[in-house]
Amino acid sequence: xxxxxxxxxxxxxxxxxxxxxxxxxxxxxxxxxxxxxxxxxxxxxxxxxxxxxxxxxxxxxxxxxxxxxxxxxxxxxxxxxxxxxxxxxxxxxxxxxxxxxxxxxxxxxxxxxxxxxxxxxxxxxxxxxxxxxxxxxxxxxxxxxxxxxxxxxxxxxxxxxxxxxxxxxxxxxxxxxxxxxxxxxxxxxxxxxxxxxxxxxxxxxxxxxxxxxxxxxxxxxxxxxxxxxxxxxxxxxxxxxxxxxxxxxxxxxxxxxxxxxxxxxxxxxxxxxxxxxxxxxxxxxxxxxxxxxxxxxxxxxxxxxxxxxxxxxxxx
Length: 316
Prior knowledge:
10 helices, alpha/beta, seven-stranded mixed beta sheet, two-stranded antiparallel sheet, globular
């Protein structure tokens, strides 16, 4: 086990406590967190205001850490859930012009944590059930009906999985889960050359930052709006991932969904595609760092290629 990174709680529940973002240390209050939270508050307010001036609705979604939801399963780990980064940001945004842009997931997920396993025991990511809570909350906020047939309509045979936390243990820690076949009406109509090249090399599982895909849903009952999601692995872009795929759920509900894997927002892209809604989604631990002030998707894709040893595309 990587020292100090994984904590083993009750009944095989594993929790990320260390790592690059020093997760457990984020559940503390100090003058440093006060200043950092204030800067995040200003980021959300500025994004919501800029989107409003463009005629776009903005939603800011923080996916809670497993620690924030299942503190009761940590086996006595000293933890102040009220001081979690997501909880602090929610309080900072109260009464601000961006209060309506923040979508709280902590309360609804804690309310249902005993009825369903909302996270994998051996992984940092949410399960389909956990992801579905976020999907329902987004639909309610946007005034559209969530698709109940997506909740558990196409369960596949149970399969073993060794999550990103289970992989850090010796021996490896596995669990059994029930995959969900989400795809019904939505189809991918665009993938950037980064995605296409990694698919061609059979390396798509390595790809994260820099991903850019677009889904189209021409079903008569689809909500006619266009969404752009700037997100991470909790939203994802591949139908076959084992964790909850928020992007897929949204793609099966709305006419068009664009997904870009980045913590930043590409304002030039928004001016180009003119979405109705912009969603910024990322895991709670990433609140440890402020997002980039500027972001260009092409530049990020080039950087990813350099880091992954993938040749740059040939100019036409």
